[in-house]
Design a protein that fits this description.
single chain, about 25 residues, mainly alpha, 1 helix, about 90% helix, about 0% strand, transmembrane, membrane
């Protein structure tokens, strides 16, 4: 359960970073 939560958190962080980068680039 802890591992799954960690993975989900990492994925969310990556997605947020990607979105921020795209917005900044645009």
């Amino acid at each position: 359960f802890f591992f799954f939560f960690f993975f989900f958190f990492f994925f969310f962080f990556f997605f947020f970073f990607f979105f921020f980068f795209f917005f900044f680039f645009k």
